[in-house]
Amino acid sequence: MTKKTAHARRFTLVSLGLGSLAILSAGLVPCVVSAQEDRPNGTSFVDNFDRIDSSRWYISDGWNNGPHQNCTWSKKQVSREDGMLQLQFTQGKTGERDYACGEIQTTKRFGYGTYEARYRTASGPGLNSAFFTYIGPTDKRPHDEIDFEVLGKNAGQVQVNQYISAKGGNEKLVPVPGGADQGFNDYAFVWEKDRLRYYVNGQLVQDVTDPSKIPTHAQKIFFSLWGTDTLSGWMGKFAYGGSPATMQIKRVAFTAEGDKCQFPESIACKLN
């Protein structure tokens, strides 16, 4: 399985699992879009994770995304500690896998605007610490996605990428000075109809202006930490370090296009 195929299948299966649970928990995470279709139903927000707000966040639990993923999503690996959201990857039989990992996603979909997060990634080859947006078939929409992914084989860089109707191939690796796993860094993208810009610590690192490479469908916001035994060429050869690996998120924000910036460090303040 190529990296691209695995990536697309990964999120398709996330949606399938989520949709199945939504049927059992009516209204928790709707799996049928309204007549408005691509109109976002989420508004501007800043979340410093004083608590995990269940009206905003859904915690993935009880499934994996396919044979390339060596862990099962577990709500036990999502917590709030020391004023931060923490996602963990740890050893322990969970579902069909020998490891457990954490993922959180918004219950609503968001459109054009500024997406920002401040976090420290996990350490370890074979791990993926990701901040991204996604929508797909279970929501009866094409697979659109915008990514920041730090691959454990080299935490000194972050991969940016986007998918449009399940077509990727827009990867770019950019440096994270000092290492993404050694301290907190700011990651942001500004998504507009005709432009998509990626920022690391306030610096523009990728500027996309080709309309065919810019997603068009409102998406959910995700944070995830997962591992692989098979995608070693992309993520590194997996080796468990003997203790849990942790991704820590201090803040996430979405500022809708046209809204005022919401905190002094926001990219939206600098651009408006």
Descriptive notes:
This protein is mostly beta strands and 272 residues long. The chain has three helices and 16 strands. The chain has a 16-stranded mixed sheet that branches. The longest helix is centred in the N-terminal third of the chain and has 22 residues, at 3-24. The radius of gyration is 17 Å and the shape is globular.
Uncertain segments are: 1-37
Helix tally equals 3
**Order of secondary-structure elements:** HEEEEEEEEEEEEEEEHEH
Q: Residue share in helices? A: 10-25%
* Whole-angstrom Rg: 17 Å
Mean pLDDT: 88
Structural class: mainly beta
How would you sum up the global shape? globular
User: Could you tell me the strand content as a percent range?
Assistant: 35-45%
Number of E-state strands: 16
For the largest beta-sheet, the strand count, sense and barrel status come to: 16 strands, mixed
N-to-C span? 43 Å
